[in-house]
DNA sequence: AGTGCGACCCGAACGC
DNA sequence: TGCGTTCGGGTCGCAC
């Protein structure tokens, strides 16, 4: 499932192949992928827009077009492929962009969970999901003071608050467990009870966990000729998430599984008091 | 305003 | 073995 590191990797590989190419038109096969505007306007407005650059904000992939930003959220299983017109359209291919290079960029998503937004550049901070987002993990404004200020109003478990994209962007369910394990914080601890030391650790290990995953994604992608297939490899190095039949890598106690805010949550009861 | 939860999806994993 | 059921993942929108 793509989290921030995977999106960063996909962005870089898409940039190599898309920069300077024009979207001739778009064919939308499954309407619900298009979140804004309606499908007709989406298809109309995206015609003949040049892809000038590729960017990322949180887990959103951003196509920097002439007059619009195309935001694409891959959710769990969204992927992009390059194909040609005559290639058979597969079951899970939902949006097809015809490019002026004679190629097609196809969006594939088995769960149909992904979303796309086409937003006028001047409205990018007024309309759509970017306006709600918090700080990037490497933003210099991400300080313990910033976090404590956000956390003090929240009685929710810290695990749930780490997933809140309005505070820090890019942390998903898996990385949240890893970050809390490295911080030695119990996932059920209320956000308003987080100490300054905790907050500093959260910042440190968020950067470390996401940064390492980007490095791994970056090294993996070179062995692939297309933009898919980068997911999964970092998961071989997970410390606690999904290890409920395993032992804590630090103290050897059993890893326990519970639910926090409706999400599967793994932690060490001994290390994370 | 903060919180909780269902809806959106469907393949994989699970239970019988 | 084959069936039906449950689960999970991120985000939004609605109800409290």
Topology:
Blueprint: H1 4-18, E1 22-28, E2 34-36, H2 39-46, E3 49-50, E4 53-57, E5 60-64, E6 68-73, E7 79-84, E8 93-99, E9 103-108, E10 115-120, H3 144-151, H4 158-162, H5 173-183, H6 196-221, E11 255-260, E12 263-268
Parallel strand pairs: 2-10
Antiparallel strand pairs: 1-3, 1-8, 4-5, 5-6, 6-10, 7-9, 8-9, 11-12
Helix pairs in contact: 1-6, 3-6, 5-6
The structure holds a DNA duplex (16 and 16 nucleotides).
Number of helices: 6
- Number of strand segments: 12
Ends apart, CA distance between termini: 29 Å
Largest sheet, if any?
5 strands, antiparallel
Which structural class do you get from the secondary structure elements?
alpha+beta
Annotated CATH topology of the largest domain: N-terminal domain of MutM-like DNA repair proteins
Give the total of domains. Answer: 2
Q: What's the order of the H and E elements?
A: HEEHEEEEEEEEHHHHEE
Strand proportion: 15-25%
- The helical percent reads 25-40%
Q: CATH class of the largest domain, anyone? A: Alpha Beta
Spans of at least 5 consecutive residues whose pLDDT stays below 50 are 218-233
Order of strands across the main sheet = 3-1-8-9-7
* Rg: 20 Å
How confident is the prediction overall: mean pLDDT?
88
In CATH terms, the superfamily of the largest domain is MutM-like, N-terminal
Shape: elongated
By CATH, the architecture of the largest domain is named Alpha-Beta Barrel
Description of the molecule:
This protein is α+β, with helices and mostly antiparallel strands and 273 residues long. The chain folds into 2 domains: 4-132, MutM-like, N-terminal (N-terminal domain of MutM-like DNA repair proteins, Alpha-Beta Barrel), CATH 3.20.190; 144-268, Helicase, Ruva Protein, domain 3. The protein contains 6 helices and 12 strands. It has helices at 4-18, 39-46, 144-151, 158-162, 173-183, 196-221; strands spanning 22-28, 34-36, 49-50, 53-57, 60-64, 68-73, 79-84, 93-99, 103-108, 115-120, 255-260, 263-268. The strands form 3 sheets. The protein has a 5-stranded antiparallel β-sheet with strand order 3-1-8-9-7. A 5-stranded mixed β-sheet has the order 2-10-6-5-4, with helices on one face. Strand 8 and strand 9 form a beta hairpin. Helix 3 (144-151) crosses helix 6 (196-221). The radius of gyration is 20 Å and the shape is elongated. Mean pLDDT is 88; it is low at 218-233. It binds a DNA duplex (16 and 16 nucleotides) through residues 1, 3, 32, 35, 59, 73, 75-77, 109-113, 115, 129, 153-156, 163, 165, 172-174, 261-264.
